[in-house]
Amino acid sequence: MAPINANDINDAKNFVPAKQVLPEVETDNGNGKASSKGYSYETLQETANFLLSRISEIPSIGVICGSGMGSLAEIIKEAVRIPYEDIPNFPVSTVEGHHGQLVFGNIGDVAVVAMQGRFHYYEGYPLWKCCLPVRVMKLIGVKTLIATNAAGGLNPTYKIGDVMIVRDHINMMGFAGNNPLHGPNDERFGPRFPPMSKAYNYEFRKIAKEVAQELNMENIIREGVYTCLGGPNFETVAELNMLKMVGVDAVGMSTVHEVITARHCDMNVFALSLITNECVTSYADDAGEANHEEVLDVGRMRQDILRKYVSVLIDRFSKIETNP
Ligand SMILES: O=P(O)(O)O[C@@H]1C[C@H](O)[C@@H](CO)O1
Ligand SMILES: Nc1nc2[nH]cnc2c(=O)[nH]1
Question: Which regions form coiled coils (predicted)?
Answer without folding.
Answer: none
